[in-house]
Amino acid sequence: MSKLVSIVIPVYNGQEFIRETLDSIFNQTYRNFEIIVADGASTDNTMGIVNEHRGLIDIIFSEKDEGMYDALRKGFDRASGDILCYINADDRLLPYALEKVVQQFDDRQCDLVFGDVNYISETGSIIFSYKGVNLSHGAIRKLRRVPFAQQSSFWTREVYDRNGGFDKSLKYVADSKFLLSVCLDPSVRKAYVPLPLGEYRLHGSSFSVSMTDKMRDEHFRMISELQLQQPSMSTWFIEAFTKIKNLKGIYKKLTYKGNKF
Question: What DSSP designation does 229 have?
Fold first, then answer.
């Protein structure tokens, strides 16, 4: 397993959790990776924390950007890896994640690898887990969404370039649009790791928690741009299948007694 994995961390004023994010990468059992920190000119101590680890981070830049996806594009433009992924500055990777992922890329000769994701609290405790589902491109077209979490997904440089990267005109769902575009391509080979690979932190100021309405609006724009059909009976059947796979996690989410967002 010799493939280089490029991990981009987009961040703006992320001092509260970025140390944990970095530690989760430093502690990987697979060691052939590069870290690229794409900071949007933070005004807090984010860069102070990043600079404490300068010797372990390959590329650091801090400049104003047009949002998270603009930062990601800049980061991936600088990346040298065969395999790409990104992790937000309040999320974490599991220690074995890169090892499991690279093994799948080597063994299966695939274009995209994904797994499960843990949803964690502000203090890092696991609230519930969400299982990815390896559906065909046809089923995903009917489902009209990606059946796995971004925090557990990794893709090749070739598939990133072929799909044009992240659409920076979108502020909230460019990652969903990119991954959905990849999954809709019948030539793309996917592999599923039946383990949590990433951890998504739920807290009041997290990106996708605080922007629900705007994300919904952009989601419908994405559906239109990808020319996906209106929901049908098969859509509800496939959606039910993904929910059944995640019944335990859904129950834990609904009965969670912590902060509500």
Answer: P
22 and 87 Cβ atoms separated by less than 8 Å: no
- In one-letter notation, the amino acid at residue 23 is D
pLDDT, tens only, 120-177 = 999 999 999 999 999 999 999 999 999 999 999 999 999 999 999 999 999 999 999 9
Cβ atoms within 10 Å of 169's Cβ, excluding its own: 12
Residue 212 pLDDT grade (very low, low, confident, very high; cuts 50, 70, 90)? confident
Helices 247-254 and 233-245 pack at an angle, to 10 degrees, of 80
Q: Within 13 Å, how many C-alpha atoms sit on residue 245's CB side?
A: 16
What b-and-e string marks burial along 66-86, b requiring 16 or more CB atoms within 10 Å of the CB?
A: ebbbbbbbbbbeebebbbbbb
CATH topology of domain 5-254: Spore Coat Polysaccharide Biosynthesis Protein SpsA; Chain A (3.90.550)
pTM for this entry: 0.93
Domain range summary for the chain, segments of one domain joined by +: 5-254
- From residue 136, how far is each of 11, 182, 186, 190, 238 by CA, in Å? 33, 12, 8, 9, 11
